[in-house]
Amino acid sequence: MKVMAISDLHGRMEGLDPGDAELVLIAGDFAPLEGWSYVDLCNQVSWVRNRFCKWCAAHPSVQFRIIPGNHDLFAQWPEVRAKVSWPDNTRMLIDEEDEVGGLRLYGTPWVPRINAHWAFEEVASGQLAEKFSAIPGGLDVLLTHTPPRIRHRKVDVSMAWNSPHFGSEELTREIAKKHPRFVFCGHIHTGDHAPVVIDHGESQTSIYNVSRLNEDYEIAYDPLRLEI
Global pTM? Predict the structure, then answer.
């Protein structure tokens, strides 16, 4: 199956085209966000309904599977995200499994604690371990917003800021247990976009940071395209 994977659009849809992809995967932070007020949430919902959903519906031969990220505040509250009616070819996954064309997918939006103001942010000790323990084995694709924390690799390091590692050790442990074939993530815009391959012996996991934007919120990276 031809797949396009991307993350961290933050509303920047310019020039974004599925091309010949059969499945588009978006690993969170797809909607713009101006603030935390109720009006800002309403504006975000309006953008999702009138911009993003219409873009997905304009490509009826493509399947879209997305997860929210910490900026997609509308998705954290069921009563708010219920205001979005997704097109038939689009599904948002929040700690859920799905199957597309024989591929097993699972999406989870949770991220390590930032400052307690964001969506799907760890707010209690052990919360990430609990959420990520639900990831099933045997997956073809694991879609996460946070990167895992990989020793000696910078998939979760902002190279623009020479930052510490922001990734999740809890996610790293689950990947080591569950052996998904592919992990697509974002969250850290200028993390290393080269694939990180973890060898499990009889299988491998390929991990990709697929953020579209850099730390200045400018378009800097092309979508990842591959066949799975």
Answer: 0.95
